[in-house]
Amino acid sequence: MSIKNVALVGASGHLGPSILKAFKASSTLTPFVINRKSSKSVYPGTNVITVPDDLNVSELAKLFNEHAIDAVVTAIAGSLVDEQRKFIDAAFQSNVKRVIPADFGSCDSADELTNQILPLMDGKRGVREYLISLQERDREGREKLTWTSLVTGHFFDWGLGSELLKFDVKNRKVYVLDGGDIYFSNSTLDFIADATVRVLERPKETANKLLYVHSHHVTQNQITEVLEKVTGDKFEKIPQDSQKLLEVARPKMLEGDFDAREEVVAVHGIVASDWADRETFANDLLGLKLQGLEEVVREVVKAVG
């Protein structure tokens, strides 16, 4: 199996621009951006496949074949389950060989407790299980459809600047969960993009696997120490109990409160997202190296101001 032409869904989101940049820099991949007909997004110098707003599966499959698409990468919100399934069905009906679903992100959708706490993760698991149900199905002489899920932990650079990691960098505060010495996995946007390219460059080794990666394996206290070094300021440490936070936020989340859902993701993504001992931890498989903490922190501080 070889993969050349790659269609990216969600090129304008948090993660999509980094993946598109990495695809363009690759010497082996030719990227295409999926864009709905009514979308106002533009992608200069990029191959664009305009698709119907209703994501008609037959039309998507036809477009995939017309552009000889080998792989579809979905970098949209994991909650968009129906949209993902349409792209998967179109991939199955066409000549697409690999699908990477929107499993990127903070928490582990393969963990039962996580799925109980966060219905969003259960939706991601459902998409992956749907892909598993298709992987052995006959495609009338075509190669079987394969998939790879990448679980990355919190988006580190974006999350540090946006308070997802419980840091208020601008106001020099950190909300310390359970003492601040819990190790958690997280990945910068560029690292995730690089990992995605490497998955596609290794189609045989990564086929039909749930893979865990991280660019940083750190604690809140370690991040705080580096932030204080970089800024020259002391950060106010505000202790918080993760269980109490979840007890307050989770009922609100279940009632549809978006901010409460973000709080649950933020907290659980720190206290229950350590990939270091996962059986399918894939940094070595993909040839990925940990990134320097201080270098990334300096970039975030510079951006936040």
Automatic annotation (TrEMBL):
Residue ranges constituting the NmrA-like domain according to the UniProt record: 4-134
Keyword Oxidoreductase in record: yes
Molecular functions per Gene Ontology: oxidoreductase activity
Upper lineage: Eukaryota, Fungi, Dikarya, Ascomycota, Pezizomycotina
Pfam family, any one: NmrA
Entry keyword Protein biosynthesis: no
Keywords of the record: NADP, Oxidoreductase
Gene3D superfamilies, per the entry: NAD(P)-binding Rossmann-like Domain, UDP-galactose 4-epimerase, domain 1
InterPro entries linked to this entry: NAD(P)-bd_dom_sf, NmrA-like, NmrA/Isoflavone_reductase-like, PCBER-like
Protein name: NAD(P)-binding protein
